[in-house]
Amino acid sequence: MKNKISFSKLLTVNICFVILLLFYTNVYSQNALIEINWDKVIRVSRTAPTLQVVVNPMLRRGSSMHNGTFEALKNLEADYVRFVPWFPYPHMAVPELRAPAKNKTFWDFSQIDPIVEDFMKAQKGHSVVMNFSTIPVWMFKTDSLVHYPHNPDSAFWSYNQGSEFRDTTLKELAGYYVRLFSWYTKGGFTDELGAFHKSGYFYNFPYWEVLNEPDLEHFKSIQLYTKVYDAIVTALKKISPQTKFIGLSLAFEHNPEWFEYFLNPLNHDPGVPLEGISYHFYGTPDLAEQPLDCYQYTFFNKADAFLDRVRYIENIRKRLAPQTFTTINEIGNILGDQSGTSIPDDYWNLSGAMYAYIYVELSKIGIDVAGESQLVGYPTQFPDVSMIDWKNAKPNARYWVLKLLKDNFGPGDKLVNTDANSSQVIAQAFITPNGKKLLLINKRNKNIQMKLPVEIKNAEMFTVDGDNNEDPPIQHQVTDTTITLKPFAVSVIDFKE
After folding, report:
1. What is the CA radius of gyration of the chain?
2. How far is residue 193's CA from residue 196's CA, in Å, rounded to a whole number?
3. Which architecture characterizes domain 28-42+416-494 according to CATH?
4. Looking at the predicted structure, is the pLDDT value of residue 356 above 70?
5. What is the helix (H) or strand (E) element at residue 249, kind and residue range?
6. Alpha helices of 247-366 — where are they, by DSSP H?
7. Segment 30-43 mean pLDDT
8. What is the domain partition of the chain in residue ranges?
9. pLDDT at position 1, please?
10. How many helices (H) and strands (E) does the chain have?
């Protein structure tokens, strides 16, 4: 087996280097001519670029990343920002960690409220997608009592145990979410013993996502998840009819059965709306030993395969539930290095370029939300998906690419026929309410020269590349029809008409 693995690794690396040799014969590629037909609109975009915020200790007040993180979120001014308290940190995700006793309940929001307050303050004036994804483990049948750390900052990856509810009617589960939802939207709730708990919160939650990655957590069948979705949505719609609910939130989109079943109204209780669905994508290396120059091919190839599956899923949705919107609310890369010590500096630009590429393609497909994952990661907690540098709390290239896209593009933009005449560069022109703009993405770890249309001369260009050093996009005037895109650059050219 070891010999087979070694040979496989050697073969993969050799193939990678052969590809690199073909592309790196010269430092620069041949000039690629950008061609734009402004009169040929291929799609009116409905896609909003945004991100998710996953709750962890770095979001707590007093942490080294707290201030920089929430300032970055506020400055982004994005809509549809997904907020997810999740299971590795039970104290920050579950306000009822102990089951109610005969004469006492154990509701405690003290570790959760400050993060919710700071998140909602940063998002003031912009929409949110709330997802309290973690079900109290005591609601499941388990072999023994699940003991979690007393320290709220200690990760406990085994909290989400169990696959069979102790209350198969799901009334207990629905009641839990009614109380949690009411705590933040109705000023408080009445607990299981009839006592009222006052919160003083009256937030408006326009979107609520029902659980997270059920194909990985708890549920082995789409049938059970659908019952859970129906129970929660039915209960919450009674207290907040205006809230729209998002279902599935799948980790993997490979199994069409989940979409075929969930999107069929006949498989839901009468009156349960199918308002939105969600699922996720992460690019990963083929081998842990791959260098950055191999990542560039692996990530974009996997992105292409994912986008093919998106198109397939959209055909299912249009056939069964054409009124249902789609959000792909976790888009990123995972290298698998939880220490964060082996992440190359240029990785952040590569990951940003991949997100920009997926955003363009999702806009062409007609997806409603493209959410980059995630605002805060750090060593031991998926450092490779972070959009904030854990060493100095400054936004990195992944954040600045998102902001560049959000500040320039969004729903209602017209995508027009654009050709870069190169497989190494993505070019897409938009007609926006603020004028004509061109998005350029360098997929490769080398400088690439582009020949621009004559009418672009003297335009303004904003770029995120390796020269930014965690600073905002670099701005400069375009004074020539030939420009150079540096490795993994993402640029927007504004015509300034």
Report:
1. 24
2. 9
3. Sandwich (2.60)
4. yes
5. strand 244-250
6. 256-262, 292-320, 347-365
7. 90
8. 28-42+416-494, 47-410
9. 38
10. 10, 20
